[in-house]
User: Fold these one by one.
Assistant:
Number 1:
Amino acid sequence: MQKCDVAIVGAGPYGLSAAAHLRAANGLDVHVFGEPMSFWERHMPKGMLLRSPLAGSHLSDPSRSLTLQAYEAASGNQITAPLPLHRFTDYGRWFQSQAVPDLDARKVDRVENNGQGFHLTLEDGETWKAGRVVIAAGIMPFAWQPPEFRHLPFSLASHACMHCDLSHLAGKKVAVIGAGQSALESAALLNELSAEVEVLARAPFIRWLWRRKWFHTFKPVARLLYAPPDVGQAGLSHLVARPNLFRRMPREWQNRLGKRAIRPAGAGWLNPRCAPLRIRNETSVVSAVVRGDQVELRLSDGSHRHVDHVLLATGYRVDIARYPFLTKRILEAIWRTDGYPHLDDGFESSVPGLHFLGAPAAWSFGPLMRFVAGAGFASHALTRGILRKNEFKR
């Protein structure tokens, strides 16, 4: 059986950043499992641009030497804003080659806890023993499909994360469900592929970020209103960017402000590309019925649509029970609220030695954990917490 001090499950921005920080700590043997940047490469559409600003798109290493600018200098690939998806994934792979060159691309099939550490079983049957496990496995298992669409075959309805290329829907009649960046950008990409697109949104109107651009670009004002990650509205952005402060607020405030910070919205630069689209607000789908090779949608206003495909840009609902590698025994021992684990200041759950990063940490640390920008804070806090507890054991 192979052994390590810390096993990291997942090789996206959070897993790679955590590895970079933990490996810089003396005496820790850290092993990372998973294909690097796989969610971004396989489950985001070709041609996508990142909504986050460049300041919120860096992966994190302790010396801050593996930034987007360092990648640009090393690769010769120009960094532009908004950042193209393919450039971001290439940056992530470059970061991995520098920080975790010995990454193990195999998938973890099972994580078990025997009270004296953890056993990990890999997809090929090999087993590893680890003193601690860090779960940074992303949001793919949390893709939310509203119940009215679950009976439809994949050929007629699918979640937006199931497509890395939308060209197979070129020329088709497509209904896009949602009002956020994923819905709006997917609809714009489909329109540019000559698909006939209609966006159906429950929201009364589409929210656009950066409506007053100079609030973000005029530095004396921007610094007062927005923290660099630019997550949340003016003022609230500074609170979101300070997770240790956010987590100390009353739970009622956290819930209300957390929802406000991540309510559906589209990037300001996307607005002109959405101008040709048909967008129907205050509309929901009441039923979806297969009619030959199409879907008939009955809408809340009583009207009907016949479409070739329904693209569900309906977001993600965290529930760590959806991670297939966590055993029932471990899940029963984790304190949870609405699918989120309760985490201490070192991102450790109620199962000693088991940590969670990324979106599952949002209940404990706020909405910044749903964005790449949270990787730096999470990696610092995780490393500090592990070193403190290891020192205590000695």
Number 2:
Amino acid sequence: MRPIRRILCVALLSASAPVFSQTQTQPSQPVTLDDAIRLAEANEPTFAAALAEGRATQLERTDARAGLLPSVVYHNQYLFTQSNQSSAVTTQGGYTESLPVFIANNAVHEYYSQASVTENLGLAQLTAVRLADANAARAAAELEVARRGLVQTVVGLYFSSGAANQKIAIAQRALDEADNFLDITTKREAAREAAHADVIKARLSVEQRQRDLDDAKLAAAKARLELGVLLYADPSTAYTLAPAGNPAPLPDRSSIDAAAKKNNPEIRSALAGLQVSQAQTGQARAALLPDLSLNYTYGIDAPELAKRGPDGARNLGYSAGATLDIPIWDWFTTERKVKEANIRAQAAKATLTNAQRKLVADLAEFYDEADVARRELASLDASVTDARESLRLTRLRYVNGEGTVLEVVDAEDTLISTENAQAEGIVRYQTALAQLETLTGRL
């Protein structure tokens, strides 16, 4: 089993080597947490989709506002209609012209060259602006939700990768100490101060420490690749993490509560969703009201493309019109749409209420988690110090013939477990603190 484990570990570690050496460059500086967040925002597809949706809804909002303004069209058209081989005197100029075969057309040759200005007035246009504003607000809130979720993921992977590297150092130190202890037991056996069973136990300990080191390297390679997927186009890009430093202190509860309630994207998203539902209700009701359309047209509609006809009659002019559409009967379709919108509005209210309750619960849960993790850090530091001292004293007792090899191996196991627990405790606190910082918008 031992050769197979080493082969697997080496294979995964080799996977982290550059695959495309022609285009890949190693980061010149260690990657800090801020760098990791920035790189992840540039590469993560879910965040990119939320960012694109936010930009698209902003454009839709601009389009909805533009719908309140008049539209201008410059229309040009030429129509040719077969003559019916007869002619008539025009009423405008008194000259004779051929008549078209189709009575719907005005002349054999007809030219349109007109500028048309149209303005539509109604509640539908106003509710469309309100709906676009609500959609844009919801997209902005969802973008912040996606960003904070991405930050939490990056923080967890970042500190987990750092802890995995620390566990490699722990496993390497344990292997060195096990080798040293094997040397001590071998010399004591040669001096007839220890039994051969002690040497066998020490050798078994060395083999176990080697397996632990291989597992630690394997876990570090996995953590490195998982983080690399978020940071780089090529996950096997070689990079190093900046030293984490001392964990930041835990802010007081009152400031966390105030910041989270003031700047919470989940609540903003739920509130925007309610506004969307209300705007959709208004849009459905707008179909029950009249719509007014105003039009002004200026240009030419004549048999010749000229300001005046052959007899000097004026071709260039204008027309204006107003249209009022009053809805009468649509088989209650509009009423049903209003009911549908009201039903969705009730669901949006429930979503908003749930988001507010969830915020209160998350604040309490995340703060308690961070507080417990912070208090346990001091306990873990003390346990590591005690475990190291215990191992030192136990080895001295064994060298002096007062202890057994089992006591030494047990002390080594205790030190390794406490050091690994210390590394995991730091990750736990950093992750819980990041959850609070993202919940309040500080990270």
